Structure to design on (516 residues):
């Protein structure tokens, strides 16, 4: 190989190296260019994808939902007043019955209530006999009361008033007689003390009792006494003084004797009046007690008669026309006294369903509003529920209200569970977003806004958190308030969890791009 061939070969190798370097450079530049043009697309594949919704004015119709058991409005409860064994059941639940139709047939056995009633009657009769013959009543009273002839309250009052008046009169007479006797005794004592100095002189006939001259003390002593006069003085043996003293002594003794007899008679009459009053009071008390026992006997007898009538061939019948909604017993079971044996929905009565709602929710409703079933496919087209009553909920009367609905549907029977929903009044709000856009954490409610930032490679979308207040909510939308402008975009869904500051890509770029 000559020199020229060597130089040519060397030149060719050098040219090939340059071509390789040039091609590598071109490829590198092409890669850089491709990365530059497709960087946004590549990055988007790594970002979470979000769906958005525009914030705008709209209507919200909140709904109140609740569940309750269908019950008979004012049902009639059939009871059995005694413990009885059920022989057979004549009806079944949901059966229509008429007044007088038999519900239960009862076994013909004497119940414990009848045995107890008979014992109570015997006890009351024995009590009456013991009381009437205890010796406190007269024979005439015993005969009268055994015949059932009881005095009226007016008669008792009249008799008691009569003996009380007699007692009061006898008490006054006894007091007066005692006072008169004490006065005479005191006067007699004073006369005996003064007898040696007050005797009038002999010949002073003007002082003899019965004259009109002085000596008024002696005259007063025997005033009103006609047993002694001048003839008595003249006939008295002894001196004039002895005669005068004897007359005075005799007159005073007779007065005291008469007053003493009056006191004895008055005290005897007082004791008699007291005895009569005690007798009348005892008679009235005994009669009232016996009358009370007789009433108890009559009540016990009536109870025995009723239980005996119900005992043999007894049945439990319906007192009203209606539909049987509940039966408490089956054949062979024993009833509980006065407990519900059956419940009947009276013809014309409706079924009701009640559930609780907040006080704020109830304030937006009014009686007459209609509710719809939450699961309408379970009922016929004739289903109707009307709000009839709003009352305080006994479990929380301050904050809760009980909503009572009247149900009209052939598909609903007593005991069924019914779920209802009732719409509040529709209202228009400035800021309405889908329910999916509203989020909540420990700090309260918030939404995630979509913010747009310009870049050389196009728009970038950044997530921003904004706290809000929920004003109202229905099945679809929520009315909100906060530092959010109308026509802002809120995130409703995302492929991954996003937080404030995250960059995201849109599920629908056109919608957002067109809005800016």
């Amino acid at each position: 190989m000559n020199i020229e061939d060597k130089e040519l070969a060397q030149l060719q190798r050098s040219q090939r190296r340059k071509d390789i370097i040039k091609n590598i450079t071109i490829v590198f530049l092409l890669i850089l260019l491709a990365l530059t043009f497709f960087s946004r697309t590549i990055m988007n594949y790594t970002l979470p994808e979000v769906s958005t919704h525009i914030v705008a004015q709209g209507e919200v119709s909140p709904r109140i939902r609740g569940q309750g058991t269908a019950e008979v409005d004012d049902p009639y409860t059939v009871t059995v007043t005694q413990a009885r064994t059920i022989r057979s059941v004549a009806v079944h639940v949901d059966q229509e019955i008429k007044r007088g139709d038999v519900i239960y047939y009862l076994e013909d056995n004497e119940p414990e209530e009848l045995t107890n009633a008979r014992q109570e009657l015997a006890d009351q009769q024995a009590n009456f006999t013991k009381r009437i013959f205890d010796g406190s009543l007269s024979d005439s009273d015993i005969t009268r009361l055994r015949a059932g002839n009881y005095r009226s309250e007016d008669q008792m009052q009249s008799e008691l008033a009569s003996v009380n008046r007699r007692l009061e009169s006898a008490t006054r007479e006894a007091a007066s007689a005692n006072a008169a006797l004490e006065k005479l005794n005191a006067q007699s004592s004073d006369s005996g003390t003064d007898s040696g100095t007050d005797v009038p002189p002999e010949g002073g006939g003007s002082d003899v009792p019965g004259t009109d001259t002085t000596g008024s003390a002696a005259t007063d002593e025997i005033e009103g006494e006609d047993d002694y006069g001048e003839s008595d003085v003249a006939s008295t043996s002894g001196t004039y003084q002895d005669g005068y003293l004897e007359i005075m002594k005799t007159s005073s003794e007779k007065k005291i004797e008469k007053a003493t007899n009056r006191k004895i008679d008055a005290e005897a009459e007082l004791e008699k009046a007291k005895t009569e009053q005690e007798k009348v009071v005892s008679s009235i008390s005994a009669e009232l007690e016996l009358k009370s026992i007789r009433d108890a006997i009559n009540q016990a007898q009536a109870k025995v008669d009723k239980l005996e009538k119900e005992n043999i061939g007894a049945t439990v019948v319906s007192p009203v026309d209606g539909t049987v909604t509940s039966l408490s017993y089956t054949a062979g079971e024993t009833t509980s006294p006065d407990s519900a044996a059956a419940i009947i929905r009276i013809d014309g009565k409706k079924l009701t369903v009640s559930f609780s709602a907040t006080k704020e929710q109830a304030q937006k409703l009014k009686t007459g509003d209609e509710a719809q079933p939450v699961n309408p496919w379970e009922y016929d087209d004739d289903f109707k529920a009307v709000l009839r009553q709003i009352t305080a909920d006994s479990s929380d009367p301050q904050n809760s209200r009980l909503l009572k609905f009247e149900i009209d549907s052939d598909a609903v029977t007593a005991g069924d569970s019914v779920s209802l929903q009732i719409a509040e009044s529709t209202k228009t709000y400035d800021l309405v977003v889908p329910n999916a856009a509203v989020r909540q954490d420990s700090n309260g409610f918030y939404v995630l806004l979509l913010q747009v930032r310009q870049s050389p490679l196009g728009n970038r979308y950044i997530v921003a958190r904004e706290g809000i207040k929920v004003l109202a909510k229905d099945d679809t939308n929520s009315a909100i308030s906060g530092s959010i402008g109308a026509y802002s975009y809120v995130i409703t869904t995302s492929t991954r969890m996003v937080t404030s500051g995250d960059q995201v890509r849109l599920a629908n770029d056109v919608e957002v791009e067109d809005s800016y």
Summary: The first helix runs from residue 3 to 44. Residues 322 and 347 are 5 Å apart (CA to CA). The two ends are 75 Å apart (CA to CA).
